[in-house]
Structure formats: structure tokens, C-alpha cells
Q: What sequence folds into this?
């Protein structure tokens, strides 16, 4: 097999991981090449997402030591999803396929062998899926479970326990390049491309250095981006809640009329206040939900660039 593979690795303040990550991925490239699963033109492409530490300088040293290590530096911190997209779209001009993986290498790099075997069988998208969450702490398990449950409940088409460890063929990368939206949720966006796909399970290890950059706040933002980008179910839920409120009000009005005709007096302060707070809360939640969609429309209509590449250090083979 003479396919050129680019391993795209987004990194943000990963100075504690970069050297080990680079060494392991270069070793894996050599193993894949020895098995005939990729060509000698393959590269490891790091995307420095505006890191504030020594990540960029360390990447430059690694590039000077080994031309198989390439990197892009974005002009500022654009976020994990934009960094991934920047690396994939850059690699599409040089690679036959791309594998994306995190810099902490918690995902099992040995699963790449199976990824490429599936690619050789004609699969365009190979999704890496965690076999378990035994290595996660209680809060991580809780938030991750809530994330996927929330996404599926609101109708976002994603694969449970699939993060951003995947293989994409060149034609999938060309298809992704045609999307122009600013609010990125790659886990859902790639699903809309179609093409032949499959899943491969892998084991997850402990993070060997540094800390996870996905805080609960970022996880929540990712969930909101995914829901508002691929589903209008929240708006429909609001409409159904509105109908329920109307029915409740009609029933309450009938009850009040019956009580009035019976000549009974009921203190009404509590019921009135509860009703006011309930309705006011629903109105605010509804406005917030609609506002999220309006905000997404606002950002999309401005057509701002998703990122700027400030620097690229790359020694490719013959351009494809």
C-alpha cells in the first residue's frame, strides 16, 4: 500500500506532552510503514492552537530534528474543533487519509492499524469508540454520560463514546472543505457527509502528563454547539410546553368556575404567585433557547474566518 497518512494532533499548552507524544507517533508511523499500511511520505502534523507556553518552540525543535514532524501555528486560540479542522484541511493537499488524535495519547495508538486496514477495504470514515470509561473519575463519567444523553435526546446524530479519534479519507476531507459554517461540531458534521463508515473500539489509558483541556464549561459549550447546529428539537419542545400551559390554564379556569358557582372562596395568593413564577421561568428559558439559535444565525451571517494560520513548518513529499 502506498497511501500517505497524516496524523493530525491539535495541541494547546501541551509542553509536558509534546516530546513523548511526538516520539510515540513517529514510532507508530514506522511500524505502520513496516506493515505496508502507509508510505514513507507520511507525517505527524501538530496544530498549535495559540498556546501560551513553550509548545511552539518545542515543535520547532522537533521539526528541525525530524522532517516527519510538521506543525501549524494558529494566530490565536481558536478552539479544539477549529484546530482539528485547520489540520485536516491543510493535510488534504498532501495526504490520502488523515487520522486525528489528542496530544495526551490517551487513545490507543495501536488502533491505527485497524483504522488503516478498514481504509484499505474501502471504508472512508473510521470512528474510534471507547470500549469503556474505567479510567475516568466519577465526575468525568457523570459529565460524559450526561453529554451524550443530552445530545441524543435533542436529536443530534452522534456516536456514543466517540470523541475525535478517527480516520478520514481524502474525499471526506474534500467534502468537509465545502462546509462554510462557523459554529463547528465535527462529530456531527462528519456524520452528515455520508460515505462508507464503521466503528473500531479502543482502550483508553491514563493521561501521562498535563491536564485535560476539556473543562465542564467547555463540554457544555460543545453540547450547545452540537444541539443548535444539528437539531431544532429544543424549539419544538418549547412549542409543546406552550400547548401544555394553555391546556393547564383552561383546566384551571374550569375548576375556578366550578368553585365560584359552588359559592366557595379559596385564598388565591399562593396559586397566583406560583403560576407567575412558573410562566416567567418558562418565558425566560424559551427566550434563552431561541436566543441561542438567533446568536448562531448572527455568527454565521457575518462569515468571519474560522482561523488564521500564522506559521507552517512542513517538508512534504511530492504534492498530490
A:
Amino acid at each position: 500500500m502506498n497511501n500517505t497518512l497524516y496524523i493530525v494532533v491539535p495541541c494547546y499548552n501541551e509542553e509536558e506532552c509534546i516530546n513523548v507524544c511526538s516520539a510515540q507517533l513517529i514510532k507508530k508511523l514506522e511500524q505502520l510503514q513496516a506493515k505496508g499500511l502507509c508510505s514513507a511520505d507520511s507525517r505527524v502534523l501538530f496544530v498549535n492552537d495559540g498556546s501560551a507556553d513553550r509548545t511552539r518552540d518545542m515543535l520547532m525543535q522537533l521539526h528541525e530534528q525530524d522532517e516527519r514532524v510538521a506543525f501549524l501555528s494558529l494566530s490565536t486560540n481558536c478552539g479544539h474543533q477549529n484546530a482539528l479542522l485547520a489540520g485536516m484541511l491543510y493535510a488534504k493537499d498532501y495526504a490520502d487519509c488523515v487520522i486525528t488524535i489528542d496530544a495526551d495519547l490517551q487513545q490507543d495508538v495501536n488502533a491505527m492499524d485497524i483504522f488503516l486496514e478498514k481504509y484499505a477495504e474501502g471504508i472512508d470514515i473510521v470512528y474510534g469508540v471507547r470500549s469503556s470509561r474505567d479510567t475516568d473519575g466519577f465526575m468525568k463519567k457523570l459529565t460524559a454520560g450526561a453529554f451524550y444523553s443530552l445530545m441524543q435526546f435533542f436529536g443530534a446524530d452522534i456516536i456514543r463514546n466517540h470523541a475525535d479519534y478517527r480516520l478520514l479519507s481524502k474525499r471526506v476531507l474534500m467534502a468537509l472543505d465545502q462546509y462554510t459554517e462557523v459554529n463547528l461540531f465535527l462529530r456531527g458534521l462528519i456524520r452528515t457527509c455520508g460515505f462508507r463508515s464503521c466503528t473500531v473500539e479502543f482502550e483508553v489509558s491514563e493521561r501521562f502528563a498535563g491536564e485535560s483541556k476539556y473543562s465542564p464549561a467547555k463540554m457544555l459549550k460543545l453540547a450547545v454547539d452540537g444541539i443548535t447546529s444539528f437539531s431544532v428539537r429544543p424549539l419544538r419542545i418549547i412549542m409543546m410546553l406552550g400547548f401544555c400551559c394553555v391546556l393547564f390554564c383552561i383546566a384551571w379556569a374550569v375548576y375556578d368556575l366550578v368553585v365560584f358557582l359552588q359559592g366557595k372562596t379559596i385564598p388565591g395568593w399562593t396559586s397566583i404567585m406560583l403560576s407567575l413564577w412558573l410562566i416567567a421561568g418558562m418565558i425566560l428559558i424559551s427566550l434563552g433557547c431561541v436566543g441561542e439559535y438567533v446568536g448562531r444565525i448572527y455568527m454565521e451571517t457575518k462569515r468571519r474566518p474560522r482561523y488564521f494560520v500564522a506559521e507552517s513548518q512542513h517538508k512534504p513529499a511530492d504534492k498530490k
In short: Strands lie at 5-11, 43-48, 69-74, 97-100, 125-130, 162-169, 197-202, 309-313. The CA atoms of residues 272 and 278 lie 10 Å apart.
